[in-house]
User: Which sequence fits this backbone?
């Protein structure tokens, strides 16, 4: 008869990935900052998966948004596998924590979970300071020229004056957050990513302590299951990565002047986009 040993003690919970320095990478930024492009490039990595804006799953369901694979969220085979997980969190982003993100890492056998919930990452920041999350959750802060963001907002039917003020306010707030969390935040911009996709992604992967994989430059070669993904048709379905500069023709001079007045009030926007003498000025290419 086999002897029974003492009951095994429960294993300490560890969310540590097998490779790379983080279990989760959360993107901060504003709507229309080009996060979907970056998320899809990260998701091409063999050890990573991108969920889109998983903190907006509840809103996406309520508003009838489809998964980026084209299926309804309730019918998508990827999300259907996690129905029980969402039920246990009552699809409430205020309850999401490292264990929630870790469930996808284990389910998909990946090391890194990428989320693009932007302002909601900031709103839920307390969850990312608690326990293991303080060490195993990293951030990427992606900026984009307010004029490009406003052209997208205008296209979506928003009031440019209101949206410009809101954008400046959020950039200021997220810039402060990135500063406070600088040890675990990677700063980038949509323009820098488009100017040199390989160079920028290599830098980011290096920071994440994961190897760069060439297929990361072909983000359209896989069906992604992103929540609340960009509905932009700009280069959709193409692997071409080119800076969207439509604001130059879609905004009128009065709108540009109004947006630039807001940008002047935010040092990082002024330095990156309005001051050609600043070393970080992005249009020097
Ligand atoms: Zn899907």
Assistant:
């Amino acid at each position: 008869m086999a002897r029974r040993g003492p009951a095994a003690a429960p294993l300490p919970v560890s969310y540590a990935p097998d490779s790379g320095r983080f279990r989760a990478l959360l993107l901060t930024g504003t709507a229309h900052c080009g996060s979907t492009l970056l998320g899809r490039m990260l998701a091409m990595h063999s050890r990573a998966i991108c969920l889109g804006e998983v903190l907006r799953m509840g809103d996406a369901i309520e508003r009838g948004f489809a998964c980026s694979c084209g299926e309804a969220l309730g019918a998508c085979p990827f999300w259907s596998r996690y129905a029980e997980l969402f039920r246990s969190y009552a699809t409430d982003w205020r309850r999401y924590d490292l264990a929630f993100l870790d469930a996808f890492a284990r389910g998909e056998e990946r090391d890194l979970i990428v989320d693009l919930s932007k302002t909601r990452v900031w709103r839920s920041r307390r969850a990312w300071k608690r326990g293991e999350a303080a060490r195993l959750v990293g951030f990427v802060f992606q900026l984009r020229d307010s004029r490009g963001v406003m052209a997208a907002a205008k296209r979506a039917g928003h009031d440019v004056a209101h949206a410009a003020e809101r954008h400046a306010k959020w950039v200021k707030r997220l810039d402060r957050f990135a500063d406070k969390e600088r040890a675990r935040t990677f700063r980038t911009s949509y323009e820098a990513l488009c100017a040199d996709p390989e160079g920028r992604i290599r830098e980011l992967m290096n920071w994440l302590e994961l190897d760069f994989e060439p297929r990361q430059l072909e983000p359209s070669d896989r069906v992604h299951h992103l929540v609340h993904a960009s509905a932009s048709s700009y280069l959709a379905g193409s692997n071409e990565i080119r800076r969207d500069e439509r604001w130059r023709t879609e905004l009128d001079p009065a709108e540009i002047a109004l947006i630039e007045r807001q940008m002047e009030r935010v040092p990082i926007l002024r330095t990156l986009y309005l001051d050609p003498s600043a070393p970080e000025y992005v249009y020097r290419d």
User: Anything to note?
Assistant: The chain has a mean pLDDT of 93.
